[in-house]
Specification:
Distance between the termini: 28 Å
Structural class: mainly alpha
Strand content: under 5%
Number of strands: 0
Shape: globular
Number of domains: 1
Helix content: 25-40%
């Protein structure tokens, strides 16, 4: 969900932080068998998920925002 200013809504941002933290906790738990993690992009300024699944809607799935600054989710991934 977007806010009026075209950024990620606070409740969605909190959910994104929680999900990234959970997923990377599993990755760390299985680090002996997981050799890499691949992202489909770097920052929200350019993502293949824009306009999907809703045409005309911006998506914010990655760890860096549209200005290439780390999002809160980034710190959930790197601080453990």
């Amino acid at each position: 969900m977007q806010t009026e200013k075209g950024s990620l809504a606070a409740d969605v941002k909190a959910l994104q932080n929680e999900k990234y933290e959970m997923i990377f906790r599993v990755f760390r738990d299985y680090c002996k068998v997981i050799t890499s993690v691949t992202f489909w992009g770097v920052a929200d300024n350019r993502t293949c998920l824009d306009h999907y699944p809703v045409p005309g809607r911006k998506n914010y799935p990655l760890l860096f925002d549209t200005k290439l600054k780390p999002k809160e989710a980034f710190y959930k991934v790197v601080n453990f």
